[in-house]
Amino acid sequence: MRSSVRVKEKRAIAACAARLVESGQTLFLDAGSTTSILSERLSGLSGLTVITNSLNVASNMTEREGTALLGNRTVLVGGEFNSDPPATFGDVTINEIGRYQADWALLSPFGLDSRKGATSFDPHEAEVARSMIANASKTVILADHSKIGVLSRFAYCTVSEISHIVVDAKAPQRPDFGAVQALAENVIIGTQ
Q: How many contiguous H segments (helices) and E segments (strands) does the chain have?
């Protein structure tokens, strides 16, 4: 269901986030609906290594016609499997993520709160996000306006630990946005 709501906003966020990425970089992408849309955009770039626990992201990165000519590499990390969202999790997943060092961790949380930062409803999703952050040089949080000011069960990254926050044009209208923006290193507002 998450993949079918606020698609226009998620596409605007994905377009902005894709502009941060350069050829030759290594990226972590989690199993969020916005990162799935981002992977559609990234699949047209060249020379990327995308490491993910998301079946949707892995499929998007490899389905585009001519993918082999672009020189992209997609790594789907193993582990226990969950079908909603279709992703791996658990100790094996965390250990495999730890084998890599990425330029960027691009993550889509359940909520983004000024006090607790990026949060998830699911403990396994939070653990995967923490591991990706720990093994990346920079962290990008992709959050549509509905996630701003939302606090979920498991915090995995404070706002001050985030390199870039990419939001849609409606995010500045949210009550907690000013507090998030004041703490953030870089906030990018996506418009299409």
A: 7, 12
